[in-house]
Structure of Heme-binding protein:
Amino acid sequence: MTLTLADARIIISAAEAKVSEVGQPMNIAVVDAGGNLISHVRMDGAWLGGIDISINKAFTARAFNIQTKDLGDNSQPNQQYYGIQASNNGRIVIFAGGIPLTRNGEVIGAIGVSGGSGEQDQAVAQAGAKASLT
Protein backbone atom coordinates (compact mmCIF):
# COMPACT_ATOMS: atom_id res chain seq x y z
CA MET A 1 0.00 0.00 0.00
CA THR A 2 1.24 3.49 -0.83
CA LEU A 3 -0.06 7.01 -1.18
CA THR A 4 -1.54 8.24 -4.44
CA LEU A 5 -1.47 11.70 -5.97
CA ALA A 6 -5.06 12.16 -4.82
CA ASP A 7 -3.96 11.33 -1.24
CA ALA A 8 -1.04 13.75 -1.51
CA ARG A 9 -3.36 16.55 -2.60
CA ILE A 10 -5.61 15.98 0.43
CA ILE A 11 -2.58 15.94 2.76
CA ILE A 12 -1.12 19.10 1.26
CA SER A 13 -4.49 20.87 1.40
CA ALA A 14 -4.82 20.10 5.11
CA ALA A 15 -1.27 21.27 5.72
CA GLU A 16 -1.93 24.50 3.81
CA ALA A 17 -5.00 25.12 5.96
CA LYS A 18 -2.80 24.89 9.06
CA VAL A 19 -0.31 27.29 7.45
CA SER A 20 -3.06 29.91 7.32
CA GLU A 21 -3.23 29.68 11.14
CA VAL A 22 0.56 29.72 11.54
CA GLY A 23 1.02 32.68 9.20
CA GLN A 24 4.35 31.55 7.72
CA PRO A 25 4.58 30.37 4.09
CA MET A 26 5.85 26.81 3.85
CA ASN A 27 7.22 24.18 1.51
CA ILE A 28 5.21 20.96 1.82
CA ALA A 29 6.34 17.63 0.33
CA VAL A 30 4.70 14.22 0.26
CA VAL A 31 6.55 11.01 -0.61
CA ASP A 32 5.23 7.51 -1.29
CA ALA A 33 6.08 4.26 0.50
CA GLY A 34 9.34 4.06 -1.48
CA GLY A 35 10.40 7.56 -0.37
CA ASN A 36 9.80 8.97 -3.86
CA LEU A 37 8.33 12.44 -4.24
CA ILE A 38 4.63 12.44 -5.17
CA SER A 39 3.91 16.13 -4.79
CA HIS A 40 5.48 19.34 -3.53
CA VAL A 41 4.07 22.80 -2.98
CA ARG A 42 6.08 25.95 -2.40
CA MET A 43 3.64 28.48 -1.08
CA ASP A 44 3.97 32.08 -2.20
CA GLY A 45 6.77 33.67 -0.22
CA ALA A 46 8.19 30.42 1.16
CA TRP A 47 11.97 30.15 1.26
CA LEU A 48 13.66 28.65 -1.78
CA GLY A 49 16.07 26.82 0.52
CA GLY A 50 13.12 25.06 2.10
CA ILE A 51 12.29 23.13 -1.06
CA ASP A 52 15.05 20.54 -0.63
CA ILE A 53 14.64 20.54 3.13
CA SER A 54 10.94 19.67 2.96
CA ILE A 55 11.55 16.92 0.41
CA ASN A 56 14.41 15.52 2.47
CA LYS A 57 12.40 15.66 5.69
CA ALA A 58 9.73 13.54 4.01
CA PHE A 59 12.40 11.17 2.67
CA THR A 60 14.02 10.87 6.10
CA ALA A 61 10.72 10.19 7.86
CA ARG A 62 10.00 7.38 5.39
CA ALA A 63 13.54 6.02 5.19
CA PHE A 64 13.64 5.44 8.95
CA ASN A 65 9.89 5.37 9.75
CA ILE A 66 10.40 7.95 12.48
CA GLN A 67 9.49 11.58 12.93
CA THR A 68 12.47 13.73 12.09
CA LYS A 69 12.19 15.55 15.42
CA ASP A 70 12.55 12.20 17.21
CA LEU A 71 15.46 11.17 15.01
CA GLY A 72 17.07 14.48 15.91
CA ASP A 73 16.72 13.77 19.61
CA ASN A 74 18.51 10.44 19.09
CA SER A 75 21.28 11.78 16.85
CA GLN A 76 22.96 14.12 19.29
CA PRO A 77 26.48 13.39 20.63
CA ASN A 78 26.59 10.20 22.70
CA GLN A 79 23.21 9.06 21.30
CA GLN A 80 22.65 5.95 19.19
CA TYR A 81 22.17 7.74 15.86
CA TYR A 82 24.91 10.34 16.23
CA GLY A 83 26.20 11.26 12.75
CA ILE A 84 23.26 9.79 10.85
CA GLN A 85 22.68 13.10 9.05
CA ALA A 86 25.89 12.45 7.10
CA SER A 87 24.44 9.27 5.58
CA ASN A 88 22.40 8.87 2.39
CA ASN A 89 24.42 11.50 0.53
CA GLY A 90 23.43 14.17 3.03
CA ARG A 91 19.67 13.72 2.52
CA ILE A 92 18.96 12.98 6.17
CA VAL A 93 17.32 15.82 8.12
CA ILE A 94 17.33 15.68 11.91
CA PHE A 95 14.99 18.47 12.93
CA ALA A 96 11.21 18.79 13.21
CA GLY A 97 8.78 18.72 10.30
CA GLY A 98 8.97 15.19 8.85
CA ILE A 99 6.37 12.57 9.76
CA PRO A 100 5.82 9.05 8.42
CA LEU A 101 2.25 8.41 7.30
CA THR A 102 0.55 5.15 8.23
CA ARG A 103 -2.67 3.32 7.50
CA ASN A 104 -3.65 0.15 9.32
CA GLY A 105 -0.24 0.06 10.97
CA GLU A 106 1.66 0.18 7.67
CA VAL A 107 3.88 3.09 6.58
CA ILE A 108 2.53 4.31 3.25
CA GLY A 109 4.58 7.48 2.79
CA ALA A 110 5.60 10.63 4.63
CA ILE A 111 5.16 14.39 4.78
CA GLY A 112 7.93 16.96 5.10
CA VAL A 113 7.43 20.64 5.88
CA SER A 114 9.94 23.49 5.93
CA GLY A 115 9.74 27.25 6.18
CA GLY A 116 9.08 28.18 9.76
CA SER A 117 10.37 27.34 13.20
CA GLY A 118 10.65 23.69 14.16
CA GLU A 119 7.40 23.97 16.11
CA GLN A 120 5.61 25.55 13.14
CA ASP A 121 6.94 22.96 10.70
CA GLN A 122 5.90 20.16 13.04
CA ALA A 123 2.38 21.57 13.54
CA VAL A 124 1.83 21.87 9.78
CA ALA A 125 3.19 18.37 9.18
CA GLN A 126 0.91 16.99 11.91
CA ALA A 127 -2.12 18.59 10.25
CA GLY A 128 -1.19 16.94 6.95
CA ALA A 129 -0.51 13.61 8.68
CA LYS A 130 -3.91 13.70 10.37
CA ALA A 131 -5.59 14.16 6.98
CA SER A 132 -3.77 11.08 5.65
CA LEU A 133 -5.71 8.92 8.08
CA THR A 134 -9.10 9.74 6.58
User: Anything to note?
Assistant: The longest strand covers residues 106-114. Helices lie at 5-22, 50-64, 68-73, 118-132. The mean pLDDT is 95.
